[in-house]
Amino acid sequence: MQDLGLRQPGVPHALFPGFEQRTLATSRGPINAVVGGSGPPLLLLHGYPESLVMWHATAPRLAERHTVVATDLAGYGRSFHPLPTPDHAVHGKRAMARDQVEAMAALGFDRFAVAGHDRGGRVAYRMALDFPDRVERLAVLDVVPTGEVWWRADAAVARGYWHWSFLALPAPLPERLIAGDPDAFFDLHVRGQLGLGVAEGRYPQAVVAGYRGALDDADALTAMCEDYRAGATVDVEDDRADRDAGRSIRCPTLVLWAGRGGLPRFYPDVLEVWRPWAPDLRGRAIDAQHFLAEDQPEEVAGELLSFLGEG
């Protein structure tokens, strides 16, 4: 296996045995991907502040039954970095979803399943809404729809999801504050609050170092903040338009969430939040913190395989 195209140096190629690194052309710019396995296509989308590397423990098992494509979202990892715009739309989930549809088409896949964690879950459900003829099955990990987060926000959400408002502040305030002490932001927020690395033995040192290193990249840091600025503006507007028009996700949908994460604290019934958006719905909690695909990769992979094999 050649260069995985990972932003961080030193990540062992053995993390994705049998996978090939690909650079996929899209109308906005190149998308970095690793591709492996055989069978029905499955697209994996990562969350903040990670990269496609987050799937290192689940992708090989999923590839036993599927052609697995794990990509970096626009602005993350080795994918292209859009230039910010005043309306933040270039970092919106509608634009990111289109990138991923085009990336899959570049591989010859016009229909596929998609699973996304965190920000990747938001891209994934937007893809299912905007491109219903492309998405056969949808799995979202540890999210509820973006609009629902803002519409239902209370004091608990404000305390637990403070980074949503902080990262969405006008540039360059959050970028400069994070750059002033990136170690503190990573250790106290990403590791301490969100729980990255808490599950012993699940996080190779080189992987964690890569996640931390992204905060030293000014373009990557801007992209993360723009992602959240879009989440507070255009993404909510797109969700509102769908809600008001009565549009919902047509395909079967699986929701997995972290039983020791924020969602069960904020929403007594996570599936109740999702049901108006995805009528063909199932899901459950996983005994993990927010990064559940890395905390409990065997269980998450098993749930995905079972869901994808239905019917």
Account of the 3D structure:
By secondary structure, the chain is of the alpha/beta class. The chain contains 15 helices and eight strands. It has helices spanning 59-62, 93-106, 119-130, 146-151, 155-160, 162-167, 173-180, 182-193, 205-213, 218-232, 234-245, 263-266, 270-274, 292-295, 297-308, and strands at 20-24, 31-37, 41-45, 67-71, 112-117, 135-141, 253-258, 281-286. Strands 1-2-4-3-5-6-7-8 form an eight-stranded mixed β-sheet, with helices on both faces. Helix 2 (93-106) crosses helix 3. The protein starts with 19 loop residues before the first strand and ends with a helix. Residues 1-12 have low confidence and may be disordered.
List strands and helices in order, with pairings.
Layout: E1 20-24, E2 31-37, E3 41-45, H1 59-62, E4 67-71, H2 93-106, E5 112-117, H3 119-130, E6 135-141, H4 146-151, H5 155-160, H6 162-167, H7 173-180, H8 182-193, H9 205-213, H10 218-232, H11 234-245, E7 253-258, H12 263-266, H13 270-274, E8 281-286, H14 292-295, H15 297-308
Parallel strand pairs: 3-4, 3-5, 5-6, 6-7, 7-8
Antiparallel strand pairs: 1-2, 2-4
Helix pairs in contact: 2-3
